[in-house]
Amino acid sequence: MEITGLPAHDESGWGQLAFEALCIAAAPALIVLAGSRLLSTDVSWSWHILSAVVCGCLFADFGSGLVHWFADTWFQESMPVLGRRLLRPFRIHHVNPDDLARRKFIDCNGDVAMVCDLVLIAIAGIPLDNFAGQWWYAMLGTSAVAALPTNQIHQWAHMPKPPRLVEWLQDCGVILSRAAHQRHHAPPYVEHYCITTGWMNRPLSAIQFFRRMETLITAVTGLEPRQDDTRFERAHA
Ligand SMILES: [Zn+2]
Ligand SMILES: [Zn+2]
């Protein structure tokens, strides 16, 4: 759908919206189930669970950056299934960032909720009778909870006037701020991919994590990064 002349995100059908609503509604139930399993286990609430929670928060932000970087950098938005569903929204977001603010709550948050639900279901298979199992369970569970509002936080970072509490959380650096996210929205869009808390952006930039990954992938596969993103942007300039 194009209202402004710029490409816009696909309108979701009723079936897709119903599925996304189900994924969002299931998330609190799965969080309670996952939390109660840990609480009913004989875990010692020591530094190792605390470190797992901290790592989970960092991992959620890192995961948001990894998915964002992958979608921005590789393959064509015209490829089957993955192209339309995952890659094209990222292409559109670079040339028409304001379109994100138009998306309604379910449409905005459904896909991320589905991924978080799958993680919360998968961790049910982790045994909790040993130290390592407890750590991974707490880390992955925390990362799923922390990642759940990722696209909502991203949408708020594009709003000139988000809700006051959200603005306060942005100012405190608890979640991604508008100013921090604008560092990504400058061609060629190669900085600050992380969009949950934004805490991992500086460390990853400092070690040139994504550039090194691109060099490695190009060396192994011969693929050039951002070819499709550059083509898409030129086509809609
Ligand atoms: Zn991007
Ligand atoms: Zn953005």
Spell out the key features of this protein:
237 residues, mainly alpha, binds zinc ion
List the helices and strands and how they pair.
Blueprint: H1 14-39, H2 47-73, H3 82-95, H4 99-102, H5 105-122, H6 131-147, H7 150-157, H8 164-172, H9 178-182, H10 201-206, H11 209-221, H12 227-235
Helix pairs in contact: 1-5, 1-6, 2-6, 3-12, 5-6, 5-7
Bound molecules: zinc ion (2 copies).
How does this structure look, described?
The chain is mainly α and 237 residues long. The protein has one domain. Helices cover 66% and strands 0% of the residues. The chain contains twelve helices and no strands. Helix 1 runs antiparallel to helix 6 (131-147) and helix 5 (105-122) runs antiparallel to helix 6 (131-147). The protein is globular. The model has no long low-confidence stretch (mean pLDDT 94). Residues 93, 97, 154, 158, 181, 185 line the site of one zinc ion.
Summarize the structure.
The chain is mostly helical.
The molecules bound to the chains, other than polymers, are: zinc ion
Helix content: 55-70%
Structural class by helix and strand composition: mainly alpha
Which regions have little confidence, pLDDT < 50, spanning 5+ residues?
none
Give the CA-based shape: globular
End-to-end separation:
17 Å
Give the averaged pLDDT, no decimals.
94
**Number of beta-strand segments:** 0
Biggest sheet overview: none
Radius of gyration, whole Å: 19 Å
Please count the helical segments. Answer: 12
Total domain units: 1
Which quaternary structure do these chains form?
Answer: single chain
Strand content: under 5%
